[in-house]
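Archive transcription. Copying these from loose printouts into the bound notebook so they stop getting lost. Printout 1 of 2:
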Amino acid sequence: MEEKIKCHLCGGKAKLKQENFELDSGRIVIKDSPYYKCAKCKEEFSTSEQMHELSDLINNKFVFQRPIINAGRSLAITIPADLAQYYNLKKGEKIKIIPEGKKEIRIKL
């Protein structure tokens, strides 16, 4: 990644910076996320490459793999405690399981 690039807004010099990127009112923090800040107009922006890297990080980091287990005569998937707490899930609540295709399922509260 280049240390300095041309600002897309004013043509000034934009310097590479890093800052923590917060999602969901600070409950999710991505440390040292890169962006550029223009010395001339003070515009802060990210390149498409930086946005793709951030998107990949979010999509890969926030994936939970869980084993399919037996629960009596049914199959079951457990939900990690942190995720259950985040969504305020309680035992006995009902969720919707929506088939999205042969290889995808969506869960809706």
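Printout 2 of 2:
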Amino acid sequence: MGKINCSDDMLFEKTISSKTVFEGRVFDVEIKDITTPEGNKSTREIVKHPGGACVLPVDDDGNCYLVKQFRSPFEEVMIEAPAGKLEKGEDPLHCVSREITEETGLTAGTIECVGAIAATPGYCSEVITLYIGTGLGYMGGNPDPNEYIATVKMPLADALKMAENGEIRDAKTVVLLYKAARRLGI
């Protein structure tokens, strides 16, 4: 692999001004006037998101627990790892500890952080922290009001195949499945 002859300083944009044009329940939208590295003026539309956390519960037999949920932007049911939006100032570990139980009814004796991803860095500030949950127990689910989900249990190897063939398309889930498979030697 060749060396890239460009310092990061040569890529930075300078923000001239910014204005919040929408404040919502889940995210805000900001318009930024910027100057490019070459000195040209341009505009950026940014979705300001508080972040999220996602967990892949994996049992002692190598099964993972995913959820099926209708996703309005795509008008379809998608398969995803349990996840949630961070509340203001919330620790991502606290978020996944809550979401694993709400969405699957499971608890995890061990929840290990395996990194974080920038979900869509071209226009959104959302960072999702990823976890693997093991040492599972069952205590019963309690989804949020107006959240309709179904839990799906399957071998992690099968879920990985579903990600590879496009049946699982949710980015955070695909990344987490690959990280878990590598970490667990699958």
